[in-house]
Amino acid sequence: MKKVFVIGCGPAGMMAALASSSIGNEVCIFERNDIPGKKLLITGKGRCNITNVASIKEFVDNTPRNGKFLYSAFNKFSNTDLINFLNKNGLNTKVERGGRVFPASDKSNDVLNFFIKMLRQNNVNIYYNSRVTEILSDGKNVIGIVVNGEKKYCDSIILSTGGLSYPLTGSTGDGYDLAKKLGHTIIELKPSLVPLVTEEDVSSMMGLSLKNINAGAYINNKLIKEEFGEMMFTHFGISGPVILTLSSFIKDYIDKSIIIKIDLKPALSFEKLDDRMLRDFTKYSKKEFKNSLNDLLPQSMIPHIIKMSGISPDKKTSEVTKSERNNLIRLLKEFTLHIRSTRPIKEAIITSGGVSTKEINPKTMESKLIKGLFFSGEIIDVDALTGGFNLQIAFSTGYLAGLNS
C-alpha cells in the first residue's frame, strides 16, 4: 500500500483519489477551499455538463490544444466508462442536444454529492482549508508536501489544482508554481472559452441574443474556424456559445488582425435574401427606411445596421436603390466586427496553457522529470471546446493518474 496525496478537490482530484484508493492506496486530498468542487457547481450553468456521448476521435478533435496527448487517458477511462460508473453507483444521467450529458436531476450539487459519497466509501480523507505551498523531493522522487506550514510525507502526489479561470471558486494557479519549482515548463497561461472585446461600440445591442447565425473567425483575412449557433452582444463586445468556441482558435493570435464575420441569415442565399427584402420594402414602401426592417431584424439591432448601411434613416423605403439594397444584404451576410482582445482570464471558462505535455507521460500522467509526481485536469496544457469535453478530460486524466500513482 502506498500513501498518495492529491492536491485539489475538484473533478480531476476527486476522480484521481477514487482511482488510487480503488487499487488499495491510502489516499488524502488537500483542498485549499473550505468546501470541495466549487467550480464543478457552476459548470453547465449550474446543471453540470458532465461529459459528451461523442466518439474518442471527436473528443480529440474538440480539443484544439494537444488533443492527441489524451488518447491514452480517453481509452483507459472513456465517456462511456464515466457514464456507466455514475449510473451503476446511483447517479442517473441524460443526454441532450449536441450529445451533452447532464445529471437527470439537472443539479450540479447532485454530482458533487455523488463524488463525496464515493470518496467516503473508499475511505479517502479530505482536508479542507489546506494550502500546499511546496512539494518536497530528493531530486529524483517526490517525498512529501508542505501544507499550512507543516511537512507531511508520502509516496506519490497527484497535482489537480485546476487553472486560473473563475478565481472566485478558489482557482489561484498555485499548482503551476508548485510544478515550476520542480523544474516543469509552464506554457503561457491564457484565457480560453472567453468573451471577446470588439473595436466597434456594440453596447446599444447589449443583451441581444441571436440564434441560428453563422460566424467565422479570420486571422489576417484567412478563415480559420466557422461555427453555427447562438451568440449575444455585451457592453464590451460579443459572447455566447459560438463566440466562446471561436475564442479557442484565436486566443494565440490576439496581436494580429482578427475579425469575426457573422452571417445573420445563413438559411438565405444572397438572392433569396434580396427577394425577402424586396417583399418587405414593398410592404413598407410608404414608410421611412428606419421603419422597414422590423420583420427582418431584432429591434435593438436596427439602428446599428442602419448606421452601418450608410442609407439615410429618413429615406422613403421606395426610394432605396438596388445598389443600396445590395450593400445592405452584404452587411447582413457579412456583419463584420474587429476583435481588440479577449476578456481577462478570470472571466474565461477554462485556462489555456499549463504544464507542458512534453514533460508528462501520456500513458500514466506521471512527470518525466520527478518520479511519483502526477498531473490531472486543467493544470495540464490541454483545453477543449464547450459541450462536456473539458470535464471528461479532468475525469480521464484523473483516473489515469490515480491508477498509476
Q: Tell me the number of helical segments per DSSP (H or I, 4 or more residues long).
A: 12
CATH level 1 class label of the largest domain: Alpha Beta
Question: Tell me, what's the shape?
Answer: elongated
Strand percentage lies at: 25-35%
Any idea what the CATH superfamily of the largest domain is called?
FAD/NAD(P)-binding domain
For the CA atoms, what is the radius of gyration? 25 Å
How many domain modules? Answer: 2
Tell me which CATH architecture of the largest domain applies here: 3-Layer(bba) Sandwich
Number of strands: 19
Which strands sit side by side, in order, in the main sheet? 12-15-14-13-16-17
Unreliable stretches? none
CATH topology of the largest domain: FAD/NAD(P)-binding domain
Provide structural commentary.
Helix 1 runs parallel beside helix 12. The protein has 405 residues and is an alpha+beta fold. The protein starts with a strand and ends with a helix. The chain is built from 12 helices and 19 strands. The strands form 5 sheets. A 6-stranded antiparallel barrel has the order 12-15-14-13-16-17. It folds into 2 domains: 241 residues, FAD/NAD(P)-binding domain; 148 residues, Orthogonal Bundle (Helicase, Ruva Protein, domain 3). A hairpin with a 2-residue loop joins strand 8 and strand 9.
